[in-house]
Amino acid sequence: MSTTRNARYWRRNMIVTAMLLLLWFLVTFVASYFARELNGVTFLGFPLGFYMGAQGALVVYVFIVWFYAYYMNRLDREYGVEEGGD
Amino acid sequence: MSDISQRLRRYFLVYTGSFLLLVLLLGVLERFGLPPHWIGYSFLFLTIILYASIGVIARTSDVSEYYVAGRRIPALYNGMATGADWMSAASFMGMAGTLFLSGYQGLAYVMGWTGGYVLVALLLAPYLRRFGQYTIPDFLGERYGGNAARLVGVGATVLASFVYVVAQIYGVGLITSRFVGLQFEVGVFVGLAGILVCSFLGGMRAVTWTQVAQYVILIVAYIVPVAMLSYKATGLPLPQLVYGEVLERVEALETTIFNAPAELEVRRLYRERADAFASRIDHLPESLSEERQRLSAAISEMKSGDASMRDIVVVERQRRELPQTAAEARDYWEGSMRQAAERGAPPIHHATPFPGASEEERDTSRLNFLALVFCLMVGTAALPHVLMRYYTTPTVREARSSVFWSLFFILLLYFTAPAYAVFAKYEIYSGVIGSSISELPGWIAAWSKVGLVAIEDMNGDGLLQLAELTLNPDVIVLATPEIAGLPYVVSGLVAAGALAAALSTADGLLLTIAGALSHDVYYKIIRPGATTQWRLLVSKTMLLIVAVVAATVAAQKPASILFMVSWAFSIAAAAFFPALVCGIFWKRANRAGAVSAMLVGLALTVYYLVRVQFDAIPWLGIHGIGMAPWFGIQSVSAGVWGVAAGFVTLVVVSLLTSPPSQRIQDFVESVRYPRTMR
């Protein structure tokens, strides 16, 4: 019984990890690849391509890491694998 | 628990408050005429005394305290300590400077050194914490079994961390030589003492709390000068938000300066100089003796004429420094030619990504940018001294939030770095370029003495053109307060911050190297029965030896700081990343696969790095080994090839050999869940 529960926990972990990695890839590599084109747009007074590298991508990174911690801590509780309180 | 964390918070607030008071007090004393070098001394020595006291208070003889701080560092403080551990002399001094010199291209470091934490958070930190041993080679040894993976891991740890620690100690030497006026070599060893007082007695426990203290100093020191610059330029002390507007002004200044007739003239002269070097290289070896004759003739003519003694000495030195052999002359002149050609090339606007004369060059430049970002990110997620920090949290849950806090505290600085570069550029372009060379501000002379700033009146008009000014990237942060005419106390603060950044990183690295050698090699392989006292004694001896060797290397002043650090990233990325990630996510990965992947990745990276970067290694008597880069990828991004080759090797070799034992598969299963199922 517990093996299927284990497998389900692991699968949900894999899905959220994959989705967050995809987001990471998009803001890092895809956005940088098109930096020249994005620079045509102005955002908060910055050329957008420059802004993405200097601040935009960083904000997304923090969000990813925060969301992962939040999601996984909840998942741990749901599956009863969280550590005892100390 | 909450009692302890409340006490911690109180200590922390009192500490931060007293540091800010100290800065204000020194600022007031400066108004009343405290001489600048006293301010420099106060900052340097007071902070080092502070670190030393923390080191002594937190001394320990417990193995778990020594290696992983007893695994009871709360997420928030571990995040701060990781931030200080992470932000090195390169982040503090080099990054804003690189952004200053190369504009958009420098953002590769900003993104790379923060985005890597996404990989740490998603792929490594929680699993390593669940595993819960002492070092990264520990994990490799346990996961893949046997000593081979562990030993290769130790080798790669030492290699990557050593390059990195040399860069930190070099940074310390630079700061002490400029701000306290010590000789560079002496400064290096003073810095070494500062590093040892923290890590020697208390290991990871002392280093962690020192790093928390150092984080506060470094972040205050980084943000204060930019906030003041920002206030000066825009009326708002929030540089991160308002620098878009200043960036616009910089771009306008750039357009004017880049196209000024005097600048065009200077760049033409530099291109001519580059051509002259090229023709000399073509006419080797005759051109070498011609050059010597020409200089001799010039000297005798000057001596018979009424030239001043100083001019004659300059030419005589040129003749003395002339290379002896044709091969040396080629290297020497090629370097000079590249330098001259660089200054003669049309400059690039700050916000322009991927510059190049043709579409092809622009594509190569973009490819290099992406490759560098990749290497820095994967390297971040593979550097043992960062990963080790996640062994110190109490739980897996805290490890996850600790990555969040790490990234948050690191962001505070990385958000500011591009703003720093833009404000510094604005100050220099609007205040220094175009002014008379005889009336240049004092900072230029002060930093020329240390060899980080150089000017050359190429067109002889007595004015400073942009192309005539050479700035070492490390100088931007250290000199900005002087450039902007801020009070000296700000310069002292910046020096203390840079010192904190370099010392904290050096501490973490030394501990990592010493841990790998003493724990993994001595305890796990040579003498598994060693007593606790012996283990600590060996660890401390290793720490001392590694520190002294690193300082000795740093005293030789090897290549620029940022550059050396980038190598460490490629090395760590190629050696560790495939083996660590597959170790957690792919049960089928086995020992043969992991060991061969680490070796192949490491060997390919070092091979590429050396052959693309150097044509000759004189002290080994090797010449003519240079090669053309593959797809134009520069040597700093050598890890791209290493990581790719590592993954391929790991998969292929693992599938060709037998799967790992059931015991190891169970081990992999166990690190995947914070706790066994109920």
From TrEMBL, chain B:
Ranges that cross the membrane: 12-32, 38-58, 79-101, 107-128, 148-170, 182-203, 215-233, 369-391, 403-423, 488-517, 537-555, 561-585, 592-610, 630-656
Name the UniProt record assigns to this protein: Cation acetate symporter
Domain of life of the organism encoding this protein: Bacteria
One Pfam match: SSF
Record InterPro entries: Na/Glc_symporter_sf (IPR038377), Na/solute_symporter (IPR001734), Na/solute_symporter_CS (IPR018212), Na/solute_symporter_VC_2705 (IPR019899), Sodium:Solute_Symporter (IPR050277)
Any one annotated GO CC term: plasma membrane
Primary location group: membrane
Topology relative to the membrane: Multi-pass membrane protein
Family: Belongs to the sodium:solute symporter (SSF) (TC 2.A.21) family.
One GO MF term: symporter activity
Organism placement in taxonomy: Bacteria, Pseudomonadati, Pseudomonadota, Betaproteobacteria, Rhodocyclales
Transport found in the keyword field: yes
Keywords linked to the UniProt accession: Cell membrane, Ion transport, Membrane, Sodium, Sodium transport, Symport, Transmembrane, Transmembrane helix, Transport
Subcellular location per the Swiss-Prot or TrEMBL entry: Membrane
Entry-linked PROSITE patterns: NA_SOLUT_SYMP_2, NA_SOLUT_SYMP_3
One biological process term in Gene Ontology: carboxylic acid transport
